[in-house]
Structure formats: C-alpha cells, structure tokens
Amino acid sequence: MKFIVSSTALFSHLQAVSRVINSKNTLPILDCFLFDLQDGTLSITVSDTETTMVTSVEVNESDKNGRFAVVAKTLLDALKEIPEQPITFDINDTLEITVQYQNGKYSLMGQNADEFPQSAALGDNAVRVEMGADILLSGINRAIFATADDELRPVMNGIYFDITTDDITMVASDGHKLVRYKTLVARGNERAAFILPKKPANLMKNLLGKEQGNVVIEFDERNAVFTMERYRMVCRLIEGRYPNYNSVIPQNNPHKVTVDRQMLVGALRRVSIFSSQSSSLIKLRMQENMIVISAQDIDFSTSAEETQVCQYSGNAMSIGFKSTFLIDILNNMSASEVVIELADPSRAGVIVPVEQEENEDILMLLMPMMLND
C-alpha cells in the first residue's frame, strides 16, 4: 500500500495523541502508532490498554486500504525534522516501510496491526451527554490540581462528574482541598455520574484548547468515550463511590473577607519563603479591613509579616493554612477579587469569586492547619 500525506498535518496529529503512550509498556505493540487507511482517510490509534485515542488525517492520494503499526518514537523524531511538504509512505507485504520526502528517504520496519489491542465497547445502558469543549476545558483546568495521588482511595484520584437534569458539576478533592465547578449550560437527560482518571483528564486538557463545538460524552459503569471534532478518546473509569462532597462544605460562615486575588497571591509567595519547610504553615489574621499574613520558621529563626487591605468587618480572628495549597487555589481562580468565608479556625475556609462567570458556579475549599499560639 502507498499513500501521500502532508508532513506537518501528520506530525501535529501524531504529536497530540502520542501523550497516551507510556514510557514503559508490557506489550511492545503499545510503543506503536496503529495506522489504518480506509478510503483516503488515515486513522491513527494509540493505547496504554486503559486509555485509547484515535485521530484521523486526510491523505492526498492512496492506492488501497490497509493497516500497520509503527514504533511511535522513531517516526515522531524523524517527522519533527521535516519542513512542510508531501511525504510518501510505501509499505510492502513484509511490512517494510519507506518514507520518502523531498531530499531523502527513511526505511523502517512496521509491525502486525492485528496485535494491537481493541478498545473497549460501551454497554447498551450507556449514558450520553454533550457539553461545549470550552466548558469541559474550563472544568478540567479548574479541578485537576485538586485531585489526589492516593493508592488506598483511588476514587479521589480523578475528577468526579455529577450529572443532573439541571446542570453538570465537576468535583476534585485530595482531602485537604476541594474544587466544585458547576456549569448551568450543560445538563443530562437523567441523573448519572462517573469518575474520570487524572491521565485522560490531562490528555483532554491538552486537546480541548484546539477544539470547537461540542464534546459528546458516552459512558457506562466501566468506560467512557469522548468524541471531539478531531479526536476520539476511550478510557477506563475509576470504579467506586465518590464521597458526598456537599456534606464537607461548611454552610454558615459568618466571617467574610473580600480581597484582591493577585495581591494576596503576591503576599503569600513572599511571606511563605519564611515558613517552616516541613509544614509551609502561614497564618492569616483578619481585623477591621485588613489582613495580616505571617509565617515563621523556629528552626532557622526566620519570620515574615505583611499587611494587605481587604473588606472585613467581623471580630478579629486568626486561621492557619498550608501556603502552597492556598496559592494553588487562588491561582486556579480567574476572578480579580475573591471572598474567603470562614466559620472558625478549625473549620474549612471556603473561597469563591466575588462575581461568578455567567452560567457557572465555582467554589474552592481548604482545610485549615492548627496554629501553635
């Protein structure tokens, strides 16, 4: 079989899906791209057995249909060095591949496509929802930093999609911090939920920025299929029950601090340099329209303190947080001003934007650390 394809079109698609491939694979065929040429369209598939991604690129001309596998790293590295031009792939019956370009040619061996694992099929009871690529990207971007790496509680290692007939909520938590991103633009036809693992979530994050239109999500108890304009991803879901996330969000928080997000991040970055390296503990002391951010490291006799203006009119109170977590949370919000809602120093702080974006509701939560004084 023989076909001609644009070098840069092929390279950009290969590069996008190659992130699925693990650095170490038990099956050698998983180090490969699967090429399947049917009627002038070249489909490219990659898999790590849990996640499979497919993309397709139109070829300029081809003589017949066929399929073969080729080692991903070699082909990617070789195509990276070729400027935009048509390149010709010629594959003979013994799977020898010749890639011809303007000034030369590459020769490499292909592998039998039949060894490539089949991607999972969904059951008859699969649920289907649609959401805009930009909304899905926004939710994944906001939530993914809060997922856990917990071997004992695997359900915490992904993003939980909670689907109702009114809205779709994406939740992530590692037990210290929690993100709840609700969109009112997308909804389901029935109540349903699934947990998307971190790796496919990261893969989607890299692809969705270039996508337009809607993403169709279909899922059953074990797998989900995400169909985009140019890519299709099938992934194994995390099985198990996600904890009731609403029950951990404190409801009555009388102390409310309104503060400029970027100014607070800057202060936290400066002051946290002087916090204890083991705990990264910083102390926030709220009093009439000001917030005092302080940290100390007793072992090295260092300390820092900075005062910022804010809107606050309650009784003076102090609370401790891990500075790296609080900075993470503030960096994953886009509002210029945020409200930190507090009940007392032992209960979680709730952080929300002063003004929510249209049709979305975002809330982040951070557990406090005990203050010694």
According to DSSP, the number of beta strands is 25
Q: State Rg.
A: 25 Å
CATH architectural label of the largest domain: Roll
Biggest beta-sheet profile: 8 strands, antiparallel
Quaternary arrangement of the chains shown? single chain
The number of helices is 6
Portion of residues in helices?
A: 10-25%
How big a fraction of the residues is strand? 35-45%
Mean pLDDT, nearest integer?
93
Biggest sheet: strand arrangement: 6-2-3-4-17-16-15-10
CATH superfamily of the largest domain: DNA Polymerase III, subunit A, domain 2
Provide the number of structural domains: 3
- Per CATH, what is the topology of the largest domain? DNA Polymerase III, Chain A, domain 2
CATH hierarchy, class of the largest domain = Alpha Beta
In angstroms, what separates the terminal alpha carbons?
A: 76 Å
Low-confidence stretches: none
SSE class: alpha+beta
Shape, principal axes of CA atoms: elongated
Helix and strand topology:
Layout: E1 2-6, H1 7-18, E2 32-38, E3 41-47, E4 51-58, E5 61-62, E6 66-71, H2 72-80, E7 86-91, E8 96-101, E9 104-109, E10 127-132, H3 133-143, E11 158-163, E12 168-173, E13 177-183, E14 192-197, H4 198-208, E15 214-219, E16 223-227, E17 231-236, E18 255-260, H5 261-272, E19 281-287, E20 290-297, E21 302-309, E22 317-322, H6 323-331, E23 337-342, E24 349-353, E25 360-366
Antiparallel strand pairs: 1-5, 1-7, 2-3, 2-6, 3-4, 4-17, 7-8, 8-9, 10-15, 11-12, 11-14, 12-13, 13-25, 15-16, 16-17, 18-23, 19-20, 19-22, 20-21, 23-24, 24-25
Could you explain how this protein is built, in words?
The protein has helices at residues 7-18, 72-80, 133-143, 198-208, 261-272, 323-331, and strands at residues 2-6, 32-38, 41-47, 51-58, 61-62, 66-71, 86-91, 96-101, 104-109, 127-132, 158-163, 168-173, 177-183, 192-197, 214-219, 223-227, 231-236, 255-260, 281-287, 290-297, 302-309, 317-322, 337-342, 349-353, 360-366. It is α+β, with helices and mostly antiparallel strands. It has 3 domains: 2-115, Roll (DNA Polymerase III, Chain A, domain 2), CATH 3.10.150; 127-247, DNA Polymerase III, subunit A, domain 2 (DNA Polymerase III, Chain A, domain 2, Roll), CATH 3.10.150.10; 249-366, DNA Polymerase III, Chain A, domain 2, CATH 3.10.150.10. The strands form 4 sheets. The chain has an 8-stranded antiparallel beta sheet. Strands 14-11-12-13-25-24-23-18 form an 8-stranded antiparallel beta sheet. Strands 5-1-7-8-9 form a 5-stranded antiparallel beta sheet. α1 (7-18) packs across α2, α3 (133-143) crosses α4 and α5 runs antiparallel to α6 (323-331).
